[in-house]
Amino acid sequence: MTTERKIVVIDSEIPFIQGLFEPYADVRYLRRNEINRRALEDADGVIIRTGTRCTPALLEGTKVSFIGTATVGTDHIDMGYCARSGITVASAAGCNAFAVAQYVLCALLSIASKQGKKLKSMTMGIIGVGNIG
């Protein structure tokens, strides 16, 4: 029994992605402006960033059944269309939470140091939105 390898189109500007999917699928790396309906006609999946808008105009008539976005949000993806069309969508929500926490802690330590204070003697508040806030 032979199984046909899946075809995945990947935004070539996503850092550190090259080589990750090759053991599992035939991969085509394209620049964001090259990811169009014609490029996706025979693709089973696409991995993008926010610059690629996944709408019916892009997806109708393709084999795409999976969209992965290397971003936290999905506002560039027509989630209703994907749900109606059986397209699975995965985002990278929370992927940068640890780095943001490190940045905030370093910023707070820098402010405290410049003021000649210790963090435990200061009152602070962090206002944010979403998973990281």
Report the C-alpha radius of gyration, rounded.
Answer: 20 Å
Class from helix and strand fractions: alpha/beta
Measured by DSSP, the beta-strand proportion falls in: 15-25%
The low-confidence runs, each spanning 5 or more residues with pLDDT under 50, are none
Task: Please provide the count of β strands.
Answer: 5
Shape: elongated
* Biggest sheet statistics: 5 strands, parallel
Order of helices and strands: EEHEHEHEH
Report mean pLDDT, rounded to a whole number. Answer: 92
Describe the strand arrangement of the main beta sheet, using strand numbers: 2-1-3-4-5
Helix proportion: 10-25%
Count of discrete alpha- or pi-helical segments spanning 4 or more residues: 4
Q: How far is it from the N-terminal to the C-terminal residue, by CA?
A: 50 Å
Describe the SSE topology.
Blueprint (H helix, E strand, L loop, with lengths): L5 E6 L13 E6 L6 H4 L4 E4 L7 H4 L6 E4 L9 H7 L2 E3 L6 H18 L19
Parallel strand pairs: 1-2, 1-3, 3-4, 4-5
Task: Note down, in words, how this protein is organized.
This protein is α/β, with parallel strands linked by helices and 133 residues long. It has helices spanning 37-40, 56-59, 79-85, 97-114; strands at 6-11, 25-30, 45-48, 66-69, 88-90. Helix 3 (79-85) links the parallel strand 4 and strand 5. The protein has a 5-stranded parallel β-sheet, with helices on one face.
Provide keyphrases for this structure:
single chain; 133 residues; alpha/beta; five-stranded parallel β-sheet; 5 strands; 25% helix
Summarize the structure.
The protein contains four helices and five strands; from the N terminus they run ββαβαβαβα.
